[in-house]
Amino acid sequence: MALQIVSVVAGEELSSGTPYESVNPARPSETVATVQLAGADDFAGACRAAAAAQREWARVPAPVRGRVIASIGRLVEANTEALARLVTEEIGKPYAEALGEVREIVDTCDFFLGEGRRLYGQTVPSEMPDKSLFTFRVPVGVAAVVTAGNFPVAVPSWYLVPALLCGNAVVWKPAEYAAASAHALYRLFAAAGLPDGVLNIVFADGGQTYEGLDRALGEGTVQKVGFTGSSAVGRAVGELCGRHLQSPCLELGGKNPMVVMPDADLDLAAEGALFSGFGTAGQRCTSLGTVIVHEDVHDEFLRRFTVAVRDAKIGDPNGDVLYGPLLDHKFAERYEEYLGWIQPHHTVLPGPVGRMDGEGLYYHPVVVDGVRPGDRLFLEETFGPIVGVTTFSTLDEAIDLANRPGYGLSSSIYTSDPKAVFRFREGVSAGMVSVNNSTSGAEAHLPFGGNGKSGNGSRQSGMWVLDQFTRWQAMNWDYSGRLQKAQMDVAEITPDLGFRL
């Protein structure tokens, strides 16, 4: 029987709304959950409720908030298998990958529980006597977080955990097609003892969310927006925040390059391309977009890569497969549009193109050789199991090709030459660089994020994300008993600048 999912605001369920069915993409006739989608008024109301709860939460000592984060980690760890099974059922992610996704939540909690005892400010020397200067991290207030469903529990934790740890309240809007997974994660957070209103979950479509967010920003009940999704929607969110003088945290799409140098281990490169290009059916923001391979090794690399793709298993995500179905019908429809970008000058490997036989939203993996810098397949993100291949002759040319699409999320280079590694790192626009590894893969203590079309330079994970969910506050304390004016009442020590030996 399908789960019944509703929004929860200040601990109260919002039972009314527009019904939406989240289906199992491996068996689309099977409904995993029916969710009631809220409206713009509900979203704005949730932000008001969060604002009302935030001040008391901020007064809880940070080390105590850290212990709450520790409890969340232990609760997620104890429920790993159940949560991973739900992720697999709802979005078709292979179970082994789903387990890894849940592990990432635990790792995030384990890292940030200690930040509750750090959140360091600084004591700064003053230019005046009998005066001290201090800096403090203070919560931003209320964070509105909107996440995609390809990583329905791991990516939200990148926002929720540090935001809550820093003393903020959160209104979280997950993807509708991953509602059951998101609701399960919300329940685990709530079980850790979070006060009502500190974490609220609102299910809504994109239009109602945007309208509700606009209203909340206008009312002053949201001080931070976190968004993970497409570059097009991220641009709209950024424009909205800009009108309200807010700086959002935007984690957007990618057209991630992999450069294969002539001295590369070609078997390793082919393995990395297989995983980063087709893991999660190519539905990651860090998925491989184009392999940029040196002309001297192009044919041999392509042969090995094609064999690896041909031999890969695609199918039931509960089995040992490279990938399962696409996330949802809308992604299948969009992917078929991408297949229409294949041109006569392209060579398509290794076999059939399009949807596989059967009920599920399964699609054949596609390698497109001969893509050119002006092709849509080269320039635009393709969210699905398709990878382009092109060639280069010099490293400078490879770097130019890697940067040309204008995204800047992840990148990879395969080589044994340290000089090539550092030239590539210096020249590539990506926020993340892998050496002899895939374009996909994140760790909880390393900054995650991109530039250009991939984001606005904000970073998630590790200590760097604290800058998204805190504001720096400066304080000066003058205990001299008199007014000391900066830059004016400063003692002068006169040097003899004309002195010579």
TrEMBL record:
<feature type="active site">
    <location>
        <position position="251"/>
    </location>
</feature>
<dbReference type="GO" id="GO:0004029">
    <property type="term" value="F:aldehyde dehydrogenase (NAD+) activity"/>
</dbReference>
<keyword id="KW-0560">Oxidoreductase</keyword>
<keyword id="KW-0520">NAD</keyword>
<dbReference type="InterPro" id="IPR029510">
    <property type="entry name" value="Ald_DH_CS_GLU"/>
</dbReference>
<protein>
    <recommendedName>
        <fullName>aldehyde dehydrogenase (NAD(+))</fullName>
        <ecNumber>1.2.1.3</ecNumber>
    </recommendedName>
</protein>
<dbReference type="InterPro" id="IPR016163">
    <property type="entry name" value="Ald_DH_C"/>
</dbReference>
<dbReference type="Pfam" id="PF00171">
    <property type="entry name" value="Aldedh"/>
</dbReference>
<comment type="subunit">
    <text>Homotetramer.</text>
</comment>
<feature type="domain" description="Aldehyde dehydrogenase">
    <location>
        <begin position="17"/>
        <end position="474"/>
    </location>
</feature>
<dbReference type="InterPro" id="IPR015590">
    <property type="entry name" value="Aldehyde_DH_dom"/>
</dbReference>
<dbReference type="InterPro" id="IPR016162">
    <property type="entry name" value="Ald_DH_N"/>
</dbReference>
<dbReference type="InterPro" id="IPR044638">
    <property type="entry name" value="ALDH7A1-like"/>
</dbReference>
<comment type="similarity">
    <text>Belongs to the aldehyde dehydrogenase family.</text>
</comment>
<dbReference type="InterPro" id="IPR016161">
    <property type="entry name" value="Ald_DH/histidinol_DH"/>
</dbReference>
